Amino acid sequence: MRHYFYPILMLAVAILSSCKPNCSKEETSETNLQLETLKDGKQRRNVIFILTDDHRYDYMGFTGKVPWLETPEMDKLASEGAYMKNAFVTTSLCSPSRASILTGQYSHVHTLVDNHAPDPGNLIYFPQYLQKAGYQTGFFGKWHMGDEHDDPRPGFDHWESFKGQGDYYAPNLNINGERVQYDDDTYVTDLLTEHALEWLDERDQEKPFFMYLSHKAVHALFKPAKRHDGVYDGKTIEKPSTYTQTIGEEYKDLKWPEWVKQQRHSWHGVDYMYHGTNGTFDGNLQKYCETLLGVDESIGSVMGWLRENGLDESTLVIYMGDNGFSWGEHGLIDKRHFYEESVKVPMLVRCPEIFKGGKNIERMVQNVDVAPTILEVAGLKKPDYMPGKSFVQLLQGDETDWRTRVYYEYFWEYDFPMTPTVFGVRTDQYKYMRYQGIWDQNELYDIINDPEEKYNLMGNPEYAEVAKQLASDLYGWLEETQGMNIPLKRTVKNPYGDYRHSDQY
């Protein structure tokens, strides 16, 4: 029996190994970073990628969501380029989303499943391919992709970053291995923008460039630039229609999960936000929007530099958030969950030489599409292991063979145990959420007729086949992408956000 089993086992291992999208350290050598050049004669464009933290998709002036919020530079970028109305992340959390952007892979593949999970050491970041193709690359800002250190990362010739979340004022930057402490009046959004533009000024003009400007803003605890502090004092928003249902028992009639009710009174709920130590709901909202103003000005500075240097027509500029943010929907704040305001992100794209501006793109794109898109405009064919697609075709009006579903995963965190593991799938009409490791209610929403995700259709006989089909699609995706195992990570410390069990290990 043993003699028959061993060859079968080894064959299975070989098959799985050949399918694995990650590479060994030997496979990440310079030889293996050489990508095939596209054969249609496309030029190697300069690319600027601007990432913000926790900026939800509709908190921009031109959307009208917050009538008093003014973001003239974002508005201009949208009018001159494209607004990707349905841009999503595959995991709504800082580190997993950022890793998906840089690797072009899902969380269960790159395994940076939370904000502490370390880089496993076998990942390739797409800027490494750009370097091999002759690009000069620069990174400025928040990395926070597993672990807390500020070490330089593969793929960037010039590197400026900080540990973990960093600080809004008096930042400490690691600049190419040398740590520099700035004074109390130095605001990190302005500093990063200034350094990014200096790098552009000093670059080798004979080479194409890729610049990654990664802001700390607008992450909590919100601190605007001093020039913006107080400009929205007294401003409020109309509370979402799902704000009050978990105060009493109405959520049960709507068939919402019990964890949503419980989370209302936690770090990520409107009644006990940030453990009640950081002001009121309205006060936090005001500071969030004021902090966003510095990001808007940063975009204006970058676009102004491109115009002054004659590169604004040819350079691809992408502005994006790493995840969304709830402001009272379902009685929650923050991200992690699969509700629209958490998983949807702002995405603005501009490059007049590629496409005509003023577009609103309806088709669904994800953070795993960023790497394939940038590689295409660099004249490179994406690696086969990347599941995403370049959305250049959408910018040019071609929707051929575009996806009809996006998939989602979030793994329970030791520090924030109030949000369960969830796997989900979204189509243009329906969203299905399936929870793991918790005795609770799954969710199904008709997001065309119920865009606020108020009425859970799970269990309704007339939607049984819809739920069954989406569940099958979800497991098909997990099986095809080797996502049937939860990648556990070693965590031995007191939980940060669990106020009920703060002294436990």
TrEMBL record:
The cross-references to InterPro entries, in alphabetical order and at most eight, read: Alkaline_phosphatase_core_sf (IPR017850), Sulfatase_CS (IPR024607), Sulfatase_N (IPR000917)
Using the record for this protein, list the coiled-coil segments as residue ranges, or answer none: none
Annotated ranges, domain Sulfatase N-terminal: 45-379
Q: What's in the keyword line of the UniProt record? A: Glycoprotein, Hydrolase, Signal
Signal peptide (from-to): none
Name the PANTHER family for this protein: N-ACETYLGLUCOSAMINE-6-SULFATASE FAMILY MEMBER (PTHR43108), SD21168P (PTHR43108:SF8)
Q: Which family does it belong to?
A: Belongs to the sulfatase family.
Please report the name of this protein according to its UniProt entry: Sulfatase
Q: Which organism is it from?
A: Carboxylicivirga marina
Upper classification of the source organism reads: Bacteria, Pseudomonadati, Bacteroidota, Bacteroidia, Marinilabiliales
